[in-house]
Amino acid sequence: MEIIGLTGNIGSGKSTVGKILKGFGAVVIDCDVISRQLVASGQPCLQQIIDHWGDVYLLPDGSLDRKKMAANIFSDKKEKEELEAILHPAITEEVRRQIEINRKQGTSCVVVEAPLLIEAGLTDLVDTIWLVVCRQEAVLARLAAYRGYSQQQALAALANQMPDAEKIPYSNVIIENSGDLEALEIKVARAWQDSLMKN
Predict the structure, then answer these.
(1) pTM for this entry
(2) Minimum mean pLDDT among 15-19, 79-83, 163-167: which range?
């Protein structure tokens, strides 16, 4: 079974690449989905977060107010690291569990989609790393259009992430995604075919 680690900074389009790979038959393990499950009402990770930051970060349904927490951690690197210390071990454990389930089921390719694949130390779980990169002006436009970010919010979010230049040395495949969807689909299809030929 081949395990692809798919990563990229906010607004790069990594989730779109994940959807394309799913269309090719890969099973996608989405770490953002796992993270949301870990901060649902009643989950142990959520309790640790509330013990640390207080219930001001809770929504009426008892789950984490992710938008409010994101605003907090994007403006404070120490806060971000403390949140990651709670979530990353639990995310890693769940990713391992899902990989093993797919291995036993005979899945041919699993994609671990993780914005913090490198930072969270998930690289040991994957065979190859695909990095999605995008020009900053295109990222800013996407974050404004799809998330309603102001330029200041978008720049703050980008500043709080590992730069692409530092991720490139870890990466086996680099997909530049500053163009349209059709161009991206062609690039991903080419990388997928290259991957199949190597295995």
Answers:
(1) 0.91
(2) 79-83
pLDDT of residue 199: 63
End-to-end CA distance of the chain: 9
Looking at every residue in the chain, the average pLDDT score rounds to 93
Strands 128-133 and 2-8: parallel
Q: What is the mean pLDDT of residues 34-49?
A: 94
Closest of 135, 199, 142 to residue 172, by C-alpha = 199
Contact 143, 10 (CB under 8 A): yes
The reply to whether CATH 3.40.50.300 applies to domain 2-198 is yes
Average pLDDT over residues 128-141: 95
Question: 3-state secondary structure string, the chain?
Answer: CEEEEEEECCCCCHHHHHHHHHHCCCEEEEHHHHHHHHCCCCCHHHHHHHHHHCHHHECCCCCECHHHHHHHHHCCHHHHHHHHHHHHHHHHHHHHHHHHHHHHHCCCEEEEECCCCCCCCHHHHCCEEEEEECCHHHHHHHHHHHHCCCHHHHHHHHHCCCCHHHHHHHCCEEEECCCCHHHHHHHHHHHHHHHHHHC
